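**Backbone geometry record:**
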Amino acid sequence: MTGGDTTGRTAVHRAKERAERLIGTLRRGLGHAGRDRDAMLSIVKSVFAAAVAWLIANNLLHAPSATFAPFTALLMVQATVSQSVDQSARYAAAMVAGVVLAGVLTPTLGAAMWTFAVLILVALVFGRWRKLGQQGPQVGVAALFAYSSFTQSPALSASYLQLASIAGLVLLGCALGVLTNLVIVPPMRYRSAEHGIGSLAHSLCDLLTDVSEGLHGGVPDRESAQAWQHRADQLPESVAQARATVEHAAETMRFNPRRLFMRDSTSFAGHRTILNALERAGEQLNSGLRGVHNAAATDHPQDRAHHRFIIGYAELLAAAAEAARNLGRLHSADDTPQLRELDDATSRAERAYRELAEQAGDETLDSPRQWPIYGALQTDAHRLVEEFIHARHSLSHLLEPDREEPQTAGSAAERSE
C-alpha cells in the first residue's frame, strides 16, 4: 500500500466522520429542542433578517450604503428576544452617536488629519460609557464611516444626507433583527429552569437520604462523615448552575410572544423561591455535617444518649429529604399533590425536631469541657426545618393565594423570634 493511498483513505475517513457528525447535528436539531436546534434556528433567522434588510435597503430604497442594514440585522439576531431588544438599543445609540459626532466635528474643524484624530478620540472616550455596554466600540466605527462620507462627498448637504442615510439604515437593521427574533420561533427555556431546579433538589435529597440512612446506626465513622461533608461542599456549585439556568430561562421569556400561548404562569417567582430554599437548606445541612464530623472525631465514647439523639436527627433528615424531593417537583399551580406532599413532609420534619428538642432537654449531651457539638446540631436542625417551613408558606401563597395555611405547633412562634 503506497503512502498516497493511505493519505487518501485517511482523508476520506475524516470526511466521512465530519459528515456523520453533521448529520447527527441535523437529526438532533430536527428531532428535539436543544442547542443544535437553537443553532439551526439562529442561522435561518439571521439569513432571513439579512436578506430582508438587503432587499429593502438596496432594491427598494436604493441606499448608497445599503450594506449597513443587513450587517446590523445580522448582529441583532441574538439568543433571546430580550437580548435582541437590549443590544439593538445599545447598538443604535452607539452608531447614531458616532454619526452625530462626525456630523458636528468635521464641518466645524474641517477635514484634516488632526480633525480625524480628535474625532476618533472623542468617539472612543464616549464609547466607554457603561450604558452602551459591549456596543461602545461601535461609536468609533460609526464615526470613522461618517467621516469618510464627508471627505468623499462634494457638497456639505450631500454629506449630511449620507449621514442620515447611515443612521436610518442602522435603525432599519436593528428593527428587522428584533422583529425577526420576535416572530420566527422566539427561543424559550421555561422547561430548562424546571430541570435545573429538579437536578439541584435531587442532589440535596440524595445527600439527605444517605446521611439519614448512615446515621440510623448512631454516630458515624470519620470516613463517612468526611465523604458527606465533601458532597455538601459541592452543593454551592450546583446552586450556581441552577440559578444561572433559571435566570437564563427568565430572560428568554421577556418580550417573548410565545408566553401568551402558555397555559401555566410564566412568572419565575416560584422557581426563585424554591431555589433560594434549596440553597439555604444546603447551607444548613453543610453546617450540620460539620457537627456530625465533629461528633465522629470526638475522643469521648458514644453513650446511649448520643445514640438516641443521632437516630432522632436521622429521622429529621429523612423528612427533610422528602421535603426537598417535593420542592423539586413543584412547577405550577396544578401541582397540588406535590404541595400536599410537601406539607406532609414538612410537618413530619417539625414533629421530628420537637421530639429531638424534647430529648435533648432531658439529657446532658455535651461535656462542659468540649465544644457543644450536639447543641450546634440541634440548632442546625431547627434552621433546616425552618427553611422548608418558610418555603412551604411562600409557595402556598404563590401557587394557591386563597389557600388556608395549616397551623403547626410552635412554628409561628419560632419564626417570630
Q: What stands out?
A: The chain has two domains: 37-183, 190-254+266-416.
